[in-house]
Fold this sequence. Notes:
Shape: globular
Helix content: under 10%
Radius of gyration: 19 Å
Structural class: mainly beta
Strand order of the largest sheet: 1-28-27-26
Strand content: over 45%
Largest sheet: 4 strands, antiparallel
Distance between the termini: 35 Å
Number of helices: 3
Amino acid sequence: MRALAALVVLLATALIASAAGADRTVTSPGPVRALARSGFSVAFLSGPYAGHCGPHVELWSLVTRGVHRLGRHTDLLCSQAPSTGSGVTDIAVAGNRALWLAYAGGNRRDWLLETATTTRPTERQLEFREVDVDAPPPIVLGVASEQVMPYSIGSTVKVLKVNGARAYAWQAAGRVTNTTAYGATVAAFVVGGRCFVLSPAGAVRQTYTFAPGSVQEFALAGVGLVVQLTGGRVEIRRGSLVIRKLRLPVGARMLDYAEGILLYRLGLQIRARRVSTGRDVLLRRAALAVLEHNGLSYAAGRRVSSVAMVNVQAALGR
């Protein structure tokens, strides 16, 4: 089995490397409103287009090059014209599975967390909550890795495996505001400024404390926890140590971190900075971008493109 797994990885790497000379691009039916990536899987949210008033999720495999529409169109919700609207607010992807968070309603708003795979494209409801229209979303979808897909409901973190089975649930002392994953490790931010890093079994491995409201963006990586703080400050923390400090230009927003590269957006510029050297380059122009260990994906208008990591590295210099 190990030999077979290694062969699959080698073949996948060869496929990506063969396209390293140019960006690979697919076209979304409607304008792209959200983007997610883990490993060789890219998910994007296609906005409404001719004949359809609702958005839907598509999954693009960089290995097979296939693009699959997941879930039925959300037209059933939007065609009823709920007084406070309907839509999809967030997506996540791992392997051939995507999760997405949808809503619809009037004075009371229904929130649904749904999932589908390329082999079972009809959506399956995982969670349902109804709240007042002015209340914050009761379900918060996190950033998935190639191994796990975290999300939270109130103070409870739930982590799914790629096959859809529950890995574990973890109870925080307060409302969880965001989650993200790296490998089988999950980081959960709790209201008040605390961040808990959870082991693959759901035990607290590390705890970080920040001033309330100071963390603007964050990512979990092998090097540690990467956070953008107020004033454009970026810190890489590992346990009690701050192992690196950086500063982004005014108005810049950190997007991701991988392979020693900090990805950020300045206006419509997607820029990368190599942490070890400080070299900073413009990669592409787009509104959305995600950086993984094996490449960059970005979206502009109706086009979703991917860049092999070898090209990102080349732009930054060795």
